[in-house]
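Running this now, will post back.
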Amino acid sequence: MSQVEGAQVFREAWIAGVRAHFPGEPKAGYVTPWEDTPEWEREAAGAVYEQVRQFLSVSGGQASRLTREQKSRFVATCWTAQMFKHFENPKPGYVADWPELPDWQQETDADIFEAIEKALN
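Update: finished.
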């Protein structure tokens, strides 16, 4: 799977997670379809997809045994690094540590990890 296809897997999992876990009506930007997603966000999604893919690979597939919290923390940390890459001074919410993320975002990040796992099998 190409990095662009992987980025799309990430984005689709993000949108599905937001729709499943966000309390109430999510912001329009949270569920923007791939074709309308900004380039920086596409690049970030592709980078995080690739990091999860490599993590699964170097663990011999054993990273799938992580808890949902561990999977979520991994995705969140990778995403935070991308925010620092793409923004000189990112908003504090964009780079919040995992325990400070809202529950819906923690669950969505775990869903993203699991969607990437599934796409690779």
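The longest helix spans residues 39-58. More later if anyone needs it.
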